Amino acid sequence: MSSQSLIPHKRDAFVNANYRFLIHPDSRDTVDVVNPDTNVDWDNVEQVVVSAANCSNCPVCLSTPSVPRMAKCGHIFCLACISQFFTVQANPYRTERGCPICMKHIERCDLRCVRIIDCFAIKSDKKMSSDDDESDQEDKQDDEQTDEEPSVKPGQTVDFCLLHRKSDYVFVQPVPEDSTNTSFRSNISKKIPFVSTKGVLEFSRYMLATRKHMEAEFEREQSTLEIEAIESLTLKDANQLGTVTKCIQEIETSNEGLSQRYSTDSNSTSMSLAKTRASWAAGYRRATANPTRPAGVGQDYYFHQAVDGQYVYLNSLNIRMLRHEFGDYCNFPKRFSLFVLYTEEATITPYIAHLPLYCNITFALVDLSGVVSEPTLKRFENDMAQRLDKSKPEP
Ligand SMILES: [Zn+2]
Ligand SMILES: [Zn+2]
């Protein structure tokens, strides 16, 4: 590990803020579980988890990335497209090039598998969206959103679930729907959870990869490529068929290598590797610690977030209403679907201080009728009216 790669660049911060990471279990000690602004060490990443809302089309073929791979710069390509990009050269064995988008130096060995998480929490109300002729004319798909567009708009409905986290760590867990006491709190620890743990793939910034998970991912990718191979054969596209066949072989090799990468026998050597990495990680943490970030010690935080892991949270006024109705945060409803009245881009507040800077966070002011009682609605009626009034554009 060269010291140069430890210098935090803006691009690394972008990757850190927008994506979540599966880490090899042997590297677990290198992950900063306290400071969310410490950039992940790319060498330890097994797979990158990306919300479909943050995934743009492959810049080479302009389609939704098929068998996606991420370069270190954060750009996502189809495996077949990026493989072809590396080989279309005077030297067919060339393994490094400039990224076709940002020109940052990328290497084949730095490409990482990507798991795209479908967006399903935000739904458009048909009645409302028919008034919104402009967006119809643009004929835009949800997955073609750009970074500047807010992920949720007034008139949409969002499915939220209640999450819990300890103030000291970056990990969150969904509050079990049937929980009547707070015993689930002890399930969360400072240890990185395995990807197979419930709620982890949707909400955790870091998770530990398992051999079983990676095998399933490679098998899924192989099936996709096999279909592409048949298509190329039908279209008599020999060039594409050659590329796809090579990609299938490449994944096969990676799949076969899993038994070694995830062998339990390698514990002794991998532990010393983990120790070395842990020591520089500690130094790096100290160097990059952000003293201005809001923090609490040993506190339990509860908050609602969109069920598919998108960074959509409730407006502070809604939280006050829920507190008035339900008292303690842990008594808040575990899941609900709410109609959005107004949205605003937000800055990090204590309960979501586990998110890195540069995240696109949206606070939604929602209609809580049906969730809280009439007296509660009445009590906050004026505040709601004032908040909604402020949101209207000045005449
Ligand atoms: Zn492509
Ligand atoms: Zn790039």
Automatic annotation (TrEMBL):
Q: Does the keyword Protein transport apply?
A: no
Cell compartments where the protein resides: Cytoplasm
Q: Read off the InterPro entries from this record.
A: MAG2/RNF10, Znf_C3HC4_RING-type, Znf_RING, Znf_RING/FYVE/PHD, Znf_RING_CS
- This protein's source sits in the domain of life called Eukaryota
Q: Enumerate composition-biased segments (Acidic residues).
A: 131-149
Location of the RING-type domain: 58-102
Determine if Cytoplasm is one of this entry's keywords. Answer: yes
The alphabetized UniProt keywords are: Cytoplasm, Metal-binding, Zinc, Zinc-finger
Region (Disordered), start-end ranges:
127-154
Q: Which PANTHER family match?
A: E3 UBIQUITIN-PROTEIN LIGASE RNF10, RING FINGER 10 FAMILY MEMBER
Q: What is this protein called?
A: RING-type domain-containing protein
